[in-house]
Amino acid sequence: QGVGGGDGREAQRAARTSMLNGVYGVAINAFIYVVFGKQICWWFTSDPAVHAVAVSILPVVAAYQAADGLRVVSAGCLRGVGRLNAALVSDVVGFWILGIPIGYYLALPMGMDALGIWLGFAFGVIAVMTPISWKAWNVGSRPEKLLDATA
């Protein structure tokens, strides 16, 4: 309604409310991963070696999931105001140019294996989440640009 009516303040309130609700949701998931990770991993494997690897990467997975959750909500806010290119460009840069190459480098040449892959992905998603969430947080600060896809 804020976007269609040209009400920048309402659009900004809706975007910020969505982002904060998203943060609360992913914070709960991250908390569960960190606090109950050992127990959760036993649900999926009885192999102690696999369990040890899974438990060791869960804090990174929790950080990844938290950042990715905020990224997804922020990208949705930007899509809602017609700014489709912002999410596309940042995802290409964050995942394909940063996340995958860094994950590969850490996993194989640096010998960090699964932890390296997840660290690379986490770095990439945090690099994506930061500008996207900043842009979404400021949606509506320029009402004349609310439905301008090039903004």
UniProtKB/TrEMBL annotation:
Keywords: Membrane, Transmembrane, Transmembrane helix, Transport. It comes from the Eukaryota. GO terms for molecular function: antiporter activity; xenobiotic transmembrane transporter activity. GO terms for cellular component: plasma membrane. InterPro entries: MATE_fam, MATE_MdtK. The chain crosses the membrane at residues 19-36, 48-67, 88-108, 114-134. Pfam families: MatE. Belongs to the multi antimicrobial extrusion (MATE) (TC 2.A.66.1) family. This is MATE family efflux transporter. It comes from Micromonas pusilla.
